[in-house]
Fold these 2 entries.
Entry 1:
Amino acid sequence: MALFDIRFRENLQSKAALLDKITNFIVKRKGKQIRPLFLLLTAKMLGEINDKTYEAASLIEILHTATLVHDDVVDDANERRGHFSINALWKNKIAVLVGDYFLSKVLLLSIEKDNVDILKIVARAVQEMSEGELLQLEKARRMDITEELYFEVIRQKTASLIACVCEASAKSVGRDDMLDKMRLFGEYIGIAFQIKDDIFDYGMPDDIGKPTGNDIRERKMTLPLIYVLNNGPKEVRQELINIVKNHNENSAKVKRAIALVIEHGGIQFAHGKMMEYKNKALELIQDIPDSIAKKSVIGLVDYTTERLK
């Protein structure tokens, strides 16, 4: 990871002073770096980490950074991980251009390093993420989203990038025989990761974290809410729809919605689904020979469902 950080910074260097300043701001505030961790560990599990592995990790992390910058503009968000967002500090126009610059870097680095095979995997992820985001926006005003549609949205919007990570790791170590399996492995992990995020909005057991209700305020159709809207008593469904549609800015009403979702089994159902996808992911790597890297990959998968934030 230390070597990855060096290469990642080098790949983002620019002749424009403002770009360097913004890039430095982003790098200093990077989060858990789950994606490069998954890429390096899965590559090590399948073969030997090499230059192409580091280049793939950099490409995908640059892409991920670009999507975060653009997402903050789309969502008009002023914060990212407790810090000001790029658009809050430098306004939307500069934020969009910075995101575009990162995307151009993905293209250029792929061509310069002769990694067109990795670029093909990354480009598919960009397409899926864009389609998922548009599908979510299209359905956002409706309150009759099915469980099936929810999984299609998060498969494209969130899971496609982790699927890309795991597929690229196999490609980087010459394991073309594992491309499909690793892509599916990453997809299942990504779905479990997103469901965990959904659960966070309703708080954690033992008062580890207080519920935020942000998803309800933003009218996001998350799995716990969808479950109760599809399976709860009629009067509960009607009350939830009324709160989300008409009272999503009212803190007391949002708190009431959280209580209803918890009371009628939304969290319990979502947790079960999350564990189901985690177990499906682990089943896919059962036949891979045991190693320190594989043990670490399993530990990272466990972390996606056990993390406290």
Entry 2:
Amino acid sequence: MKSNKKISEILIAGIKEAYSKEESSDFYHQTLKVSHSKFIGIFVTLFLSLNAFFGCLYYFIPGTIAGPTEPSFIDCFSFSVQTMGTVGYGTFFPQSIFAHVLVTLEVMMGLVGIGTFAALAFARISLPDSKLIFSKKLLINEDEGEPHLNCRVAHLRNNMVVNAQISLQLIHPILNKGGQVEMVMDQLTLEKNNFHVMTGAFSVKHRLNSESPLFGKSSTELNQENCHIVATITGIDGTTSEAINHVHSYSPDDIIWNQRFKSIIYKDPDSKDHIVDLTLINETESAKRPHA
């Protein structure tokens, strides 16, 4: 019988392979996820390549377009750009049946292509950007006499998240009675998982008692069982009323023992106001109290 680690490695490899195959055919979601610079680069590359292709056809096939002068390649390329963009300055024009067929095909491609990229650009712009982040590490320290698993979540935008729901789940593979591997998601009960109004940063705490799936387990044991902890937060943007969400995954190596998060709130010595510094969300310090 294979070890749990080996089974999980095979399972994850299968998931990655299936995911990559699905991703390769999902043009819409792939386009939404690429960076802005890559999206613009893809559009410019395709646009120039198509116009260069049609420009070559107009230039190397004699008698396709006519104008006040003998068309150069730049003239043919410009004619292609005008045709694809449905501009039509009228300096050059098609003069053969074959040229009219090329123009018809190019206009059709231009309408579909430019329309598609315009729709994708609008979809990218209209995607809700939550500006929610989780701390990079999970901390385990003693709180009120019991060990707790802690992380922090912050909202970086200067508005509120309404009806925020936070969850932590332990994900790991098991071998069921039928001899098949399946993924199990164990809920990690939080001391508080619902916030009617959320702004700034909040602490997320899970009590490591006998009812916790993490009770008595070290980071090494969690690594051997190939466990991961997934943190999620959902809510509604207080300004746009759009649904927003954020997901963050922690590996056992992200768990730090006997550490606590530094306070992100301090008092301004000049104004005497309490200031929230979200740049300190990942700052930690020793949780061990000094001896008296």
